[in-house]
Amino acid sequence: MSFAEISLVAALATGAAAIAAALAIGEPRRRTLLTGVLTAGCGAGGLLAAMGVLATGRPVEAEFPHLLPFAGLSFRLDAFGAVFVLVAGGGASAAALYGISYTRDHLSGRSFQALVPAFVLTLLLVPAANSMSTFLMLWELMAVTSLLLVLAEQRRSPNAREAAMWYGVMTHLGFIALLLMFSLLAAHAADGSFAAIRHTSSTMAPALRSLVFLLALVGFGSKAGMVPLHAWLPRAHPEAPSHVSALMSAVMVNLGIYGLVRVGFGLLGGGPSWWWLVLLALGAVSALFGILHALASTDLKRMLAYSTTENMGLVLVGVAAAGLFTSTGHPVLAAAALGAVLLHVINHAAFKGLLFLAAGSVVRGTGERDLDQLGGLMRRMPVTGAMFTLGAVAITALPPLNGFMSEWLLLQSLIHGAQSHVVAVAVAVPVAIAVLALTTGLTAATFVKATGTGFLALPRTRAAEDAEESPRSMLLGMGVLAGACVFLAIAVGVLAGGLARAIAAVGGVTSPAPFRVHGTTVSLPWQIVGTSVVLGVAVVVGVVAISVALRVLPRGARRRRTENWGCGRTQQTARMEYTASSFAEPLVRVFDDVLHPELDIDVTHREESQYYVESISLQRGIKDAFEERVYRPVLGGVAAWGRWARQIQNGSVHRYLAYGFVALVLLLVAIR
Amino acid sequence: MSVTRAAVPILQVVLVVVAGPLLIGVIRKVRARLEGRVGAPIHQPLRDLRKLLTKERLLPEHASWVFALAPAVLVSSAVATAALVPLVSTVSPFAHVSDLVTITALLLLGTVALALGALDPGTAFGGMGSSREMTIAALTEPTLLLSIAAISILAGTTNLPAVVASTLHRPEAVISIGYLLAIVALAIATLAESARLPVDNPNTHLELTMVHEAMVLEYAGPDLALVESGSSIRLAIFLGLLANLLVPWGIATTPSVARLALGTLAFVGKISLLAILLGVFEVFTAKIRLFRVPELLALSLVLSFLAVIIAVVHR
Amino acid sequence: MTRATYAELLNLLAGIALVAAVLTLWRRKLVAIVRLLAVQGAAVAATGLVIGIDRASVSAIVLATLAFALKAGVIPLVLLRLVRRGPDARETQPLVNVSASLVAAALLIALAFASTSAVVSLSSGPESRVIPLGFAIVLVGFFSLATRGKAPSQLVGFLLFENGVALVAVLAAAGVSVVVELGVALDVLLAVLVLQVLTARMQDKFGSLDLDQLQELHD
């Protein structure tokens, strides 16, 4: 057995042991510790297995034909799936370590503790599924376990139930789309295995292929948080416990991307340009929509959830670009775009996971999720603050951290793709570049807002003043992901070979490596353009050098702490600080045609006279435009149809018997 | 690698660190003369920096390490950019990583660092400046990247020294409408990023009209010297970039001492000219309202988008 | 002039015309908008002039000079007189705000380029490669016509639209026949004069040039 196979089996065994431990152990502390450690081991095993597959390119295969009735289970972990298993394994280890102390107090029950490793196992296995039934079964298991995990905190949070309902309904609607899609594919093929589907998909009628692609868009797009099927994401992700949120946002949404690329490129083998243009438009709208709502949001976890929509939108833009380049005959650019996509998936998992874990640390330490109630946490929670700042710098795609590299690759492939001679590409690509650039700027604004108002300056409320730093295992979990961010920034060359193998494994994109690495320089395969890790390192070295040099100055050895100048006034209080909503206000105003912020001012007058005001209350909110314009009418329509259909049930026994009789007659007629 | 080639980044860094404050001095002198005053000598900003370096270092009582590190990050990222951009010569040890996208990202790093540092003391003006600065930065990013895309498409590469070299070979390529539009959009973005009129008034003393100045109100002594120096380096880089994209005459293409000297003189001459023009422009321009700034930036976005479309179609 | 210079000159002039059209969406003062219209008309007429010089066709040169006088001289003067009459007709009042209309202009330009690509590939001359720019002016002019609130700025939008059509015609036929162009120009002049009189009457009657007021007539 190869290294990858051994690691994978070890991972599965450890995961099963974790479930067993969660169910068997009586003492809560020991339960959380052992389950956490075993789940972390499961994740690490998955990580190692993925690394093994990526290093050699040889897939891991396993067949269990009699395990499920009719179809059996079939697994094949190739290099492309390995990227997603890598992400899942790494994220799961960090989240599990974090969870040891996070769940110590109120989430230490058996069912919760057993569900987490189950969820992790499904996350590791979905990318390895090799037949329709295996995939759908694992997908559904993943949805069910995560749904139950979202419900975990329903006693403490009133919104959890509603969030879970939205999540449940939407994920199952997506499931139906996937079921239809796979049925169409499998009906045309010999059986439901991916190999058979790949074999016969090219002989399907173009209209049927397009239908399959659209169903894939609906099913996988809703999992990835693509607009307009995103409404569950900003509800469900914040309500789940933070380490589960991290797993959902950093790992589970990626599986939507996995599915889309697997079906679009691998199973269908690419398609006409209009598929990719539709995907590009949807991705661009998701990205802009996500970041604008993140900017306007003051709830820390909701902001991060919207930011996930944005990043997945960017990834979809990259996938669409890769598809466009393939269908118009630029295989080298397509490989670069797909490489950028995969790199961004890995990077996003690292920094989004880190940000969610840090947010969970804040929620645990202060009990508050609203940025307007926080502040000054850098003093009381220095490690969490530093971790959040690191994550914020990474997500803004700034050198020296990892987000920069994937954003750079994506931009480069788009800029070079704009030189295409195909009109659709030549016009769509500048729009994509503009959207990418705008989202980068808005991300910078959003995360300056989050870090600045949440962690810097003075605490705004008692809760923030009394914040306490998190226990060691939570810090360790965050540290693992922070280390991953730094590692990915410095050693991105390590991934070059693995990514090339992953792209080759997808099929439908034929080309050499997405990028080349010479020492510390990453360069593109078609020209002498590159970027280097040295730059980021140089900036860091420069900062250190300047800080040291300052101490050498005549009066520079010590810094004196003093009052703020504040333009000549004294006594700084927390009321003078900018809040998150005020920070975002100018940008929200620029985009108010898109966001439609609502302002409610309620003035209560005194009884004695209308001229004296007792109190004024102001409420400002931003509603999701898609929910108002799309969801509400659709739900209203469904409800109306349901009410109309109730006429069928009028209570009369005769009518019900008549229904049965008529159905029987019709059946007899039809069978004739 | 020859010694002269390795010396190019060091030469460029020293040049911008010294030339940055001098540029500010030139702009102030030009404005003063046009307004009928004598004005301070051109090297006054350098004297101010020296004075600031001798002062005591102060830290607001509620600030954390973010406030303390922000000026260092600003200067460090600006210096790294200065080492990359082909100001004096197109040959340097970093030529193959001198990429337009990288430079935009490095400059954004400086902006973000300063914005975070402004939020740390917790003053209202710091928050205001930071909020406004991030609004402007967010809206300038698309313009910057699209102008870069247009220039890269016309030149066939995003590598800056290669772009400048191709313009050296074919100077008439600059007169095309696509290139000119990209440069105009880049110029508007420069004004926005460097906090000059009409986006922000660097000489205002009214806090409610400040954007950049409001962010640095709490810095004093050597930290303030770093911030001022960093901002002037960024201005020098932007002006140098504009100059070399438009008229790269004089830039050194071989690492010989004579060519480097000529390149230095050409660079200094070009940015001084641009500084004088900027000074004249500032005398005749008023600051536009904050909520009209997005309209100006939307205009520059449309111009740069148009530049990309024209560049794509006419290749 | 060489082929390359000719092509670049056409590009430059058409580009200036398009940028002037986009700038009318940005400026608020009506006087500035009329001046931009004059610049735009001058650029369009100059395009005709360049094409006429290239083909050494006297009729085309004469026509272009006439068009220049009309588009850059007469019509803007008439409009300026109109704008300076009303006391409150100084600033535009767009239905779509400035930033949104600029973004819409960008998308319309992309649409123009995307949809005229087939036309461009029909002929190989340098004129046909500039047609997308002309078509973009048509679209931007139409957008301006549809979303401006005050009558003079709507007029400007109409004139932008007409200039765009003229530019596309001049490029497509590489020199339109004298009679056609003259006829069209006179039509436009007539339309502008009539509209000027009408607008002056509106101003006198309602005291403002707000087109929403026209809805009052309906009641």
Q: What can you see in these coordinates?
A:
The complex is a heterotrimer of chains A (672), B (315) and C (219). Chain A has 672 residues and is mainly alpha-helical. Chain A is built from 25 helices and 8 strands. In chain A, strands 3-4-5 form a 3-stranded antiparallel beta sheet. In chain A, strand 4 and strand 5 form a beta hairpin. Chain B has one domain. The model of chain B has no long low-confidence stretch (mean pLDDT 89). Chain B has 315 residues and is mainly alpha-helical. With 219 residues, chain C is mainly α. Helix content of chain C is 79%, strand content 0%. In chain C, helix 1 packs antiparallel against helix 2. The chains are: A mainly alpha (672), B mainly alpha (315), C mainly alpha (219).
Number of helices of chain A: 25
* Uncertain residue ranges of chain A: none
* Largest sheet descriptor of chain A: 3 strands, antiparallel
Shape of chain A: globular
Order of helices and strands of chain C: HHHHHHHHH
Quaternary structure classification: heterotrimer
Largest sheet of chain C: none
Structural class of chain A: mainly alpha
Of all chain pairs, the largest interface belongs to:
A-B, 89 and 93 residues
Number of strands of chain A: 8
Cα Rg of chain A: 26 Å
